[in-house]
């Protein structure tokens, strides 16, 4: 019994230590923004643009495809299961289920699977090859060059991809409504959805884009830069970063539900 309690305590202590390390890491990344010089701004901007290109632009096709399929399936199945009363629920399903919850979650998971893994692997490789130490020796803050632009890029990318997801989902939902209910005018469909959509849904999308994007960059960068022993730790760092980010995203999503209730 004592061993079990000790094991639980040690596990809790390790998790608290990780949370503390993440908090310090996030504060150092934010503090780095205030130390940007003129030259540092241009370097950060270049890395930021490359990060947005990889994280957002190259994920447009995948996000569009998944948004279209998800929205079509949800609305089409709703129409077939509920029959004539289905149009009364289109607005609630689209706004609450797809736009407010599933859209941000799926978008964040796509970014984690594509860019989160890349960020963690890149950071871990830089640490193992000594590039982080070399930056510090040259007087360059690794947080300015490595962490800050990726955090800003992930925030911008996730927020923009969420908007894209919502737009595609609305269009695909109209197609699904026509297939499932046998025909619906675009005006009627728009009225149903817009009557349910509110300003709260807009700021929730923006807030989730900022927090989910920051979580992707911070968790993956933190675990990547925590590598010390050698190349064998790189895949472990990627796994810890991705799993930690996914858990954090679901916890934050539940917190948004509680706050916005």
Characterize this entry briefly.
With 261 residues, this protein is mainly α. The chain has nine helices and no strands. It is elongated.
Radius of gyration: 22 Å
The computed structural class is mainly alpha
Main sheet makeup: none
Indicate the mean pLDDT: 83
- Counted up, domains total 1
Counted by DSSP, the helix tally is 9
Number of separate strands: 0
Please estimate the helix content.
over 70%
What's the overall geometry? elongated
Provide the low-confidence segments as ranges.
none
Name the helix and strand elements from N-terminus to C-terminus, one letter apiece.
HHHHHHHHH
Determine the N-to-C terminus distance: 41 Å
The percent range for strand residues is under 5%
């Amino acid at each position: 019994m004592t061993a079990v309690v000790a094991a639980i305590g040690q596990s809790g202590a390790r998790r608290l230590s990780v949370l503390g390390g993440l908090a310090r890491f996030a504060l150092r990344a934010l503090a780095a923004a205030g130390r940007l010089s003129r030259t540092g701004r241009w370097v950060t901007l270049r890395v930021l643009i490359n990060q947005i290109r990889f994280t957002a632009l190259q994920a447009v096709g995948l996000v569009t495809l998944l948004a279209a399929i998800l929205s079509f399936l949800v609305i089409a199945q709703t129409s077939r299961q509920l029959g004539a009363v289905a149009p009364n629920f289109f607005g609630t399903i689209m706004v609450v289920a797809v736009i407010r919850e599933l859209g941000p979650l799926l978008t964040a998971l796509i970014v984690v699977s594509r860019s989160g893994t890349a960020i963690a692997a890149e950071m871990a490789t830089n640490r193992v090859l000594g590039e982080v130490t070399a930056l510090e020796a040259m007087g360059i803050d690794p947080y300015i060059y490595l962490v800050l632009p990726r955090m800003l890029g992930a925030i911008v990318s996730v927020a923009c991809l969420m908007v894209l997801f919502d737009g595609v989902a609305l269009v695909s939902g109209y197609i699904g409504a026509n297939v499932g209910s046998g025909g619906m005018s675009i005006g009627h469909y728009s009225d149903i959805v817009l009557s349910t959509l509110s300003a709260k849904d807009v700021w929730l999308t923006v807030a989730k884009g900022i927090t989910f994007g920051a979580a992707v960059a911070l968790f993956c960068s933190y675990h990547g830069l925590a590598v010390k022993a050698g190349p064998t730790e790189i895949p472990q760092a990627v796994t810890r970063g991705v799993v930690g980010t996914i858990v954090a995203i679901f916890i934050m999503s539940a917190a948004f539900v509680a706050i916005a209730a």
